[in-house]
Amino acid sequence: MAKIGTFGSLVFTVSDDVVKTFDDLKWDVSANYATHDRHLQEDLLEFLGPEPDGITFKMKFSVFLGTNPLKEVQKLRQMIRTGQAERLVLGAQVYGSYKWVAKKMSAGMTRYDNKGNCWAAEVNLTLQEYGRR
Questions:
Q1: Do the beta carbons of residue 121 and residue 112 sit within 8 Å?
Q2: Distance from C-alpha of 26 to C-alpha of 122, rounded to nearest angstrom
Q3: Model pTM?
Q4: Residue 78's pLDDT is what?
Q5: 41: enclosing H helix or E strand
Q6: Beta bridge partners of 34
């Protein structure tokens, strides 16, 4: 089994039996500025400081890839509902300056069997930087 990384109890992994990885990771970095109006001159920008970083990515869960989609979606839901702050580690690299929280999830339950069991789900997950040291 090859462990790609972790976000708390969410483990990104690939093996012969399980594929639990992500796609389209995007890291948003921004700063906060105030605009001061000046008479007969161009407006003046004032740097107020950095805003919390954001990371978004997509995941697919499927019984055909060795995961229980509903269980994985419920795990992510619980992380969001409890405000659990965790480090995001991919490979040997820790992302961000501190920890992250799962702020938002959008889950499309895409495939069911004839008994109502979820067989596949596609998730968009939004993380936000929790704080700085």
A1: no
A2: 17
A3: 0.84
A4: 94
A5: none
A6: 46
